[in-house]
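Customer escalation, tier 2.

The customer says the design service returned an amino acid string that "doesn't look like it belongs to this structure." They asked us to rerun it and document both sides in this ticket. The original structure tokens are below, unchanged.
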């Protein structure tokens, strides 16, 4: 089976993500490319709701949870940040799903943990049980490499069966958090692993142009094909894409390249549906 490419966006900053989505969404429509939008649902509860609801209402798009307020659902060791209180986590896992289903009138199947983790939901049985109870069918919360480093390796789908929930899947995300690659939140150097997982992927500085960012994407796409991976999905944030590349040249280059290779596009929901 061919490797599929999943465009996915962590949509989290009210005005800045919305402004970027005004360019991202038409580009997806023009190129007929699907996407998964993981959204912080306070954007669907506030003044931004009508515009986000209009922009993202498209059969090509999957809308999934990025919690209500971008809270940490586990301790994030790479960033030195503690988890939110459990009552807040349980409430946001439930409420974000309900809000998406109410606004888009479709099931919300997945959750991407803000900031993500080295091992997804790990062995946190209480958290895994909570996602399962609320009706989530997958998590996409693994996006760091060994010892909390970047880039995130091309890890593939797995079940949370050891915790007793074999129908809850983890679909990791891959490569660099593009905001880090650009130095928007932190510089890449502090997250590098030695020796690296991919010694043939070397960067001496942050990317400075959309073409350089595309070259990084191409490395992970080519590597996924070489490894015969089921899927590859990079870690994108509309606010950071818009700040660096308002024309979204990188997206166009990346989607064209995926098409040139003859790889199909998909959403995370499609990946989960394969397992029914
Ligand atoms: Zn986020």
């Amino acid at each position: 089976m061919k490797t599929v490419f999943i465009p996915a966006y962590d949509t989290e900053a009210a005005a800045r993500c919305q402004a970027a989505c005004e360019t991202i969404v038409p580009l997806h429509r023009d190129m007929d490319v699907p996407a998964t939008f993981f959204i912080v649902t306070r954007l669907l509860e506030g003044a931004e709701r009508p515009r986000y609801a209009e922009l993202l209402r498209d059969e090509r798009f999957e809308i999934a949870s990025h919690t209500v307020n971008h809270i940490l659902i586990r301790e994030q060791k790479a960033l030195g940040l503690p988890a939110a209180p459990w009552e807040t986590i349980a409430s946001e896992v439930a409420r974000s799903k309900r809000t998406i289903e109410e606004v888009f009138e479709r099931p919300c199947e997945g959750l991407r943990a803000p900031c993500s983790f080295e091992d997804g939901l790990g062995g946190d049985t209480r958290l895994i049980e909570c996602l399962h109870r609320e009706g989530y069918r997958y998590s996409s919360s693994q996006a760091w490499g060994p010892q909390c480093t970047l880039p995130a390796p091309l890890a593939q789908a797995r079940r949370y069966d050891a915790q007793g929930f074999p129908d809850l899947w983890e679909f990791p995300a891959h490569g660099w958090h593009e905001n880090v690659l650009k130095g928007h939140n932190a510089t890449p150097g502090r997250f590098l692993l030695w020796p690296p997982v991919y010694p043939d992927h070397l960067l001496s500085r942050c990317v400075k142009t959309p073409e350089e960012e595309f070259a990084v994407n191409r490395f992970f796409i080519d590597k996924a094909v070489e490894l015969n991976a089921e899927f590859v999905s990079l870690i994108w944030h509309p606010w950071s894409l818009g700040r660096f590349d308002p024309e979204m040249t990188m997206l166009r280059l990346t989607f064209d390249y995926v098409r040139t290779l003859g790889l199909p596009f998909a959403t995370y929901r499609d990946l989960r549906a394969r397992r029914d």
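Tier 2 assessment: The sequence is consistent with the input. The mean pLDDT is 96. The chain is about 35% helix and 15% strand. Sent an explanation to the customer and offered a walkthrough call.
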